[in-house]
Design goal:
Keywords: Glycosidase, Hydrolase, Membrane, Transmembrane, Transmembrane helix
CATH architecture of the largest domain: Alpha-Beta Barrel
Pfam family, one: Glyco_hydro_3
InterPro entries: GH, Glyco_hydro_3_AS, Glyco_hydro_3_N, Glyco_hydro_3_N_sf, NagZ_Beta-hexosaminidase
CATH class of the largest domain: Alpha Beta
CATH topology of the largest domain: TIM Barrel
Number of strands: 17
Shape: globular
GO biological process, one term: carbohydrate metabolic process
Low-confidence stretches: none
Structural class: alpha/beta
Radius of gyration: 25 Å
EC number: 3.2.1.52
Length: 458
């Protein structure tokens, strides 16, 4: 047999062996993928062709309908095969069946499916007890962070019992410190559950409080100016100074820092950011969250999943066509750094990030919220950007969609519409009251964690 023929036979043999190995591996992978898997979850919505569930980690999945006996609010053990993809609007996995699970409470009355190792876990018992004393209206209202009304703010709060108010520059204009304290105290005095009192005190171009010379000797500087003149130590001290001023006035939530990554001075968001790369912006996020601890003011990482070089969502829809790989590499790390440092809240933008969810703004996208909860492991409060902003204001039932997407707290100007739409959705079974309970429970646990309710009880 000549050498050429021997070589051909040898190569053929090797190819046959490699083919066999490949078939074996593929068979094993397919077999593994076809194994029956189970997941305990709560049914969020059901229609003629799909049903949506939320698992114990607050990840939301939508499947093709399995039968017509599912009801919103059911806790089920779902059987399926295939792999789940938290970034897909509709799962490819085949649903094999399900069984309904009877919900049980532990000895302290916290539903088992609400229990996790979250940042507020030490206060779940207290939150569960408080929740039992509240009406449906009061629970819905806890989910609303309302823009401070121009007229009758105290009477409006007394009627609705909102989760909190957001204050803007005009609400502090010309007021003295005693007058601001009185304004806040009058609100807290009519609140059955102490309210969140929120501002955007970012520094630089967004200074709701320090723009008033009666309240601060000078405006807080922008993050970039602080960094260029004194590095992260100056940012740390600035955070402490902000917190002390806000706390003195009775303000307990700062809708800052902006941890979007922007290095181009032409970007819409640039002047509000550190203006540096991902690594330095991550250090900025860690510095602010660390410095804020123990001073009575919670800070909010924004605008998830990262604003990039996009335009202003106050005025209309903004489309972000960056790849998910770019966002994952450049934009998510500062949020992750802040979360790992103990951030209590994250605010989600209204940008439509096409490579995560091309159909919905981030604030209304379960895919975006799944990344925040699952990939970054965030267990705190997710806040929507203002639902009155141009990017989402024309969307029907926007408050209901924001709840269904995974937000805990909704910033809203039209509180009557938001409240009524959510209540109607509960009454017509679009939203299960159990979901409202869970979200209100989370907000209450945060307020206990912050010491707001204990202070009120004293």
């Amino acid at each position: 047999m000549d050498k050429k023929r021997i070589l051909v036979l040898a190569i053929t043999g090797i190819l046959i062996v490699l083919g066999g190995i490949t078939l074996f591996i593929n068979h094993n992978l397919e077999s593994k993928d076809e194994k029956t898997k189970t997941m305990v979850s709560t049914v969020m919505s059901v229609d003629d062709s799909t049903f949506t569930i939320q698992d114990s980690n607050n990840i939301i999945y939508t499947f093709g309908i399995v039968d017509n006996n599912l009801s919103v609010g059911d806790v089920i053990e779902l059987e399926y095969n295939g792999s789940l993809n938290k970034n897909k609007a509709l799962q490819d996995s085949k649903v094999l069946g399900y069984k309904t699970i009877k919900v049980s409470n532990d000895e302290e009355g916290v539903p088992s499916e609400w229990q996790d190792n979250g940042i507020f876990k030490d206060f779940y018992i207290f939150a569960a007890k408080k929740l039992k004393t509240m009406s449906l209206d009061e629970k819905i209202a806890q989910l609303l962070l309302v823009r401070y009304p121009d007229t009758n703010p105290v009477e409006t709060l007394e009627k609705y019992q909102f989760g909190g108010y957001v204050f803007f520059e005009k609400d502090f204009r010309d007021k003295t410190k005693p007058e601001v304290k009185e304004m806040i105290n009058n609100l807290q005095n009519v609140s059955k559950v102490p309210i969140l009192t929120a501002v955007d005190e970012e520094g630089g171009t967004v200074v709701r409080v320090s723009s008033n010379p009666n309240l601060a000797s000078s405006k807080f500087e922008s993050p970039r100016d602080l960094y260029l003149s004194g590095g992260f130590e100056k940012i740390r001290q600035d955070t402490i100074n902000k917190s002390l001023l806000l706390s003195e006035l009775g303000l307990n939530l700062n809708l800052a820092p902006v941890v979007d990554v922007s290095t181009n001075s032409g970007d819409y968001m640039y002047k509000r950011t550190l203006g540096e790369n991902t690594e330095l912006t991550s250090t900025y996020a860690k510095t602010v969250i660390s410095a804020s601890k123990g001073l009575g003011v919670s800070y909010t990482l924004k605008h998830f999943p990262g604003y990039g070089n996009n335009n202003d969502t106050h005025t209309g829809q903004v489309i972000d066509n960056r790849t998910y790989a770019d966002i994952e590499k450049n934009d998510l790390p500062p949020f992750e750094a802040g979360i790992n440092e103990g951030a209590e809240a994250v605010l989600v933008s209204h940008n439509t990030v096409t490579n995560i969810d091309s159909s919905n703004p981030a604030s209304l996208s379960s895919n975006v919220h799944n990344i925040l909860r699952n990939k970054l492991g965030f267990t705190g409060i997710v806040i929507s950007d203002d639902l009155a902003m141009g990017a989402v204001s024309s969307i029907d039932n926007v408050a209901v969609k924001a709840i269904m997407a995974g937000n805990d707290l909704l910033i809203t100007t039209d509180y009557e519409e938001s409240f009524n739409d959510i209540k109607e959705a509960v009454n017509n079974k679009t939203i299960d009251e159990g979901l409202i309970d869970k979200l209100a429970f989370r907000v209450l646990a945060w307020k206990y964690y912050k010491g707001l309710i204990f202070e009120n009880q004293k």
